[in-house]
Amino acid sequence: MKATESEAGRKDIIIFDGVCHLCSWTVVFVLMRDRSHRFACVPLQSEAGKTILGRCRSKFDENEMLVLVEGDRYEIKSTAALRIARRLSGLWPLLHILIILPRPLRDFCYDFVAQNRYCWFGRRDECYVPTNGEMDRFPD
Questions:
Q1: What 8-state DSSP symbol labels residue 14?
Q2: 74: which residues sit within 8 A by CB, 6+ positions away?
Q3: pTM for the whole structure
C-alpha cells in the first residue's frame, strides 16, 4: 500500500472496474492523453482499490465503477468522467462543458451505459494488466 500512498500524494487516482473491457479501454485512452502524467490508475478489485474506496465512502453502488480521487476529495460517475476529460490533451477538455447539465441527467446516462457495459463490451476473467510502459501509472 505504500506505493499507492506515495502516488496519491502527487497524482489523482482513477479507480476503475478492472474486469470490464470498456473501463479498461477507457483507462488506456486516458493514459495516452494524459501527457502530464497526472493520473494513477487502480482497479477497484485490487487491495489498493478497496482500501482507497473504503476511505472515500463506506458503500458504493455497483454502477459507480469510475471514481476519481483528488487528494481528500472524490467524484463518481459522470462528474468523475468529466473532471478527467478536462485534464486530457487535445479537444477532450471541451467535454467538461457538459458539467452544466443537471447531475441527475448526466448520471442517468452514465448509469445506462454502466448497467449494460458487460453485455455490450464484455468482461475479462482477470483484472486489466498494464503494459511495461504503463506500470508506473498503476501503483498497486
A1: E
A2: 56, 57, 67, 68, 80
A3: 0.79
